[in-house]
Each structure stands twice: as C-alpha cells, then as structure tokens.
C-alpha cells in the first residue's frame, strides 16, 4: 500500500471514530444515561430524554450518514480515488 493510501485509510478511520463516537453519545448517552436529566425539558409535548430514545437519535443517525458521505466524497477527491 502506498504512503498516500495509508494516509487516506488513516483519515477514513478517524472520520469513522468521530462519527461513531457521536452516534454512541446520542444513542446511549442522551437516550439512556442522561435521559432523566433531559426529561426536565420537553419537545413536542414529550420529555426530551424519551424523544431522544424514540425519535431524536434517528434524526442524528441520518444526519451522520449524510456527513459521512460528504466527508468521504471530499476525501476521495483529495486523494484522487474518486469515481470519475
């Protein structure tokens, strides 16, 4: 593997680590660990902790997919491994 491809792979793994950390924080942290504290607030008439556990985390997951696609397209173009 060339040095450029190692950099590409390393950057890809760093993107994955960051996005999966956000995913974990939202799904486990906001939906379970901090649910009681978040339930002091409400969104749409539902306690915020419940909302994150049922719906909010899904919105974050879809947003994370779009962010990953954007970042990878940019990275592919930077390392000239994109589809032309």
UniProtKB/TrEMBL annotation:
InterPro entries (UniProt xref): Na_symporter_ssu
Q: Would you say which domain of life the source belongs to?
A: Bacteria
Q: Tell me where the transmembrane regions lie.
A: 12-35, 50-71
Does the record carry Nucleus as a key word? Answer: no
Q: Which UniProt keywords apply?
A: Membrane, Transmembrane, Transmembrane helix
Domain (Sodium symporter small subunit) spans 6-82
Cite the NCBIfam families for this sequence.
Na_symport_sm
Q: What is this protein called?
A: Sodium symporter small subunit domain-containing protein
Annotated organism of origin = Roseivirga misakiensis
